[in-house]
Amino acid sequence: MTSGRTRLLRDMVRIRVVEETLADHYRDEQEMRTPTHFSIGQEATAVGVCAATDTRDWVYTAHRSHAPYLAKGGDLKAMVAELYGKQAGCSHGRGGSIHLIDRAAGFAGSAAILGEMIPVAVGTAWAFARGGEARAAVTFFGDGATEEGVFAESLNLAAVRRAPVLFVCENNLYSISSPIGARQPAGPTIRDRAEAAGVTAVQVDGNDVFAVHEAARTALRHCREGSGPYLLELATYRWREHVGPGFDHGDGQGYRPAAETEAWIARCPIVRAADVLREQDPGIDRTVAEWRALFGDEIRGAIAYAKEQPFPDVAALLDGAYQPVPR
Amino acid sequence: MRTLTYWQAISEATVQCMAADESIFIAGEGVDDIKGTFGTTKEAFARFGPNRVIDVPNSENATAGFAVGAAAGGMRPLLIHTRADFMFLALDPLVNLAAKWRYMYGGDKGGVPVVTRGVVGRGWGQGATHSQSPHATFAHYAGLHVAAPASPADAKGLLVQALTGDTPVVLVENRNLYPLTGEVPAEASGIPFGVGRIARRGGDVTVVATSLMVHEAERAAGQLAERGISVEVVDVRSLRPLDDRIICESVAKTGRLVVADTSWARYGFSAEVAAVVAENIPEALTAPVRRLALPDSPAPVSWPLEEAFHPGAGGIVEACLRLCGQAPGELPALADVAAGFQGPY
Ligand SMILES: Cc1ncc(C[n+]2csc(CCOP(=O)(O)OP(=O)(O)O)c2C)c(N)n1
Description:
The complex is a heterodimer. Chain A is built from 12 helices and 8 strands. Chain A is of the alpha/beta class. Chain A has a single domain (3-310), classed as 3-Layer(aba) Sandwich (Rossmann fold), CATH 3.40.50.970. In chain A, the strands form 2 sheets. Chain A has a 6-stranded parallel beta sheet with strand order 2-1-3-4-8-7, sandwiched between helices. In chain A, strands 5-6 form a two-stranded antiparallel ribbon. The longest helix of chain A is centred in the N-terminal third of the chain and has 28 residues, at 2-29. Chain A is globular and about 50 Å long. Chain B contains 12 helices and 14 strands. Chain B has helices at 6-20, 42-48, 60-72, 91-98, 101-104, 135-139, 152-164, 212-225, 244-254, 269-280, 303-309, 313-323, and strands at 3-5, 24-28, 53-55, 76-81, 115-120, 145-147, 169-174, 181-183, 197-200, 205-209, 231-235, 238-240, 257-264, 290-294. In chain B, strands 3-2-4-5-7-6-12 form a 7-stranded mixed beta sheet, with helices on both faces. A 5-stranded mixed beta sheet of chain B has the order 9-11-10-13-14, sandwiched between helices. A two-stranded antiparallel sheet of chain B has the order 1-8. In chain B, strand 13 (257-264), helix 10 (269-280) and strand 14 form a beta-alpha-beta unit. In chain B, helix 1 (6-20) packs parallel to helix 2 (42-48), helix 1 runs parallel beside helix 7 and helix 9 (244-254) packs across helix 10. The longest helix of chain B is centred in the N-terminal third of the chain and has 15 residues, at 6-20. The interface between A and B is large, with 48 and 39 residues. Ligand 1 sits between chains A (63-64, 112-114, 141-145, 172, 174-176, 238, 242) and B (29, 58, 60, 86, 89).
């Protein structure tokens, strides 16, 4: 168990280092010409859930895609090359940050129209179950996406079909600059709405990777046993601006109090996991520092690789719009 | 006359109409944001507050239906989508209700004047689902008015017209136009839908365009003038109703037609303009119609592909040269315009 817990911390550190490094390059170079939504501060949700899946389970996400992609085992170089718009990218430079995919790892796709990938996961889960396979489909989305009608429709459809789908709501309290209180009534939570629709649902501290992981294991067992859909509402917080590499608290953007952001930064999921592990492993901080160096090298290598790669051939612009017609 | 930017013109029209008519309200995701929808809702929010400039949940379908109901109840909703791509979620209320309301209840119970502003346009790898211009989609349906203003004055005049009429309207705004400046009348007077304008006079080729492509056509015309080709640029301003007359009068004079659009050719704006000419003045054409539109794929992200994907002045120049039987060859550089969204997003 301890080694499993250490692994959760390690995966979070990797994603943090990757994203922080990418954010710096994004800002300084202006070469990753693709709107990018960083998950910095939200690593525990992606890691806790994805570590509970196996490669045969599929994960879909919305626009905030990097952390689940990496947590699911998506290829780092292919992701970075995608951000640089290169042919070696996971979507060959056609899709950008919001359209990641790595089928071999079970990362089935991200897409950025809100709510779009929620019913898609229900369909995949249903197809798995229909094929008699004990596999689940997972779909990550934000609190904002639960306001789309398709969320309610998908809960209902999943419940009535008992689809083995795990809905993962990363509730980070904001939709761009709109606080959740302006968009959803106080009282019923997202969890409550799922439960009312007939979907088993729990709320979990989304910055506690161990709690998220436990909850995801239970949820996925439930799905695979044929007990129907499950929803996790995970409370977390985005540290950076909605889209782009910068911080936006305390710079006059004014939609969230700087003290609120700072309080959440103090609840850093990585620091919290290290605090827990330190009780058994006093050397954990040194280990984390070693990982930081290791993953720093890895991401810098991936960036160097991506930059060397060629752009797609302009003559191939139309390729992929349709299945090639045999000649 | 004083000059305003395109976004200021929209803001001014909004504020003037809201001051004159208490029933107008704005609804959209983040319309109260500090950035104020590219600046266009900032002053309205400052003047009229959150009761009339309403940040709504991420519920495009329900919000559009809500707007239909509010309009039926005597209000005048102005809905805003920061990407017109999100309007696909609002299609049912707009197309199946708003567009048909007046007619299917017998034509004598009034309309539901829901006005929707949708922002379109390329820039910084916006890609397949965040840079589409679905103006033709909306213009397909009888019962809606659809306009795509190219100038600050038209942005103001067409919005005023929309907010004072009784027909549901979709206004398409290319985000690359927001910083553009131009003369704008101070008073809030409407520009009727279905009346195009000649953006530049010429005698050899007609370029019919809308929105951003009007500016690309004007750039192209400047370059072609140096090759002795005189281009007439027709800005249709609204797609439905479409000013058939201004198109046909110009083509009757020049005998040559290029249609430039920021969306796809098939079943699109350019197809419609070509059909209008073919139906009305087939004898006028001395050369085949050329359409400059998007290649038949979704929008790519990677910037060399994105550059190749989006049509611009260069493509218009080439099309005009071909129609006039001239080889592309050496040309002076194109005049630079503000067009081209600055990064990072
Ligand atoms: C249908 C649709 N409407 C609006 C948007 C614009 N938009 C993109 S991300 C976003 C905020 C979403 O918030 P949430 O779902 O909570 O995810 P978060 O960004 O917080 O991770 C919005 C409104 C969109 N992409 N799609």
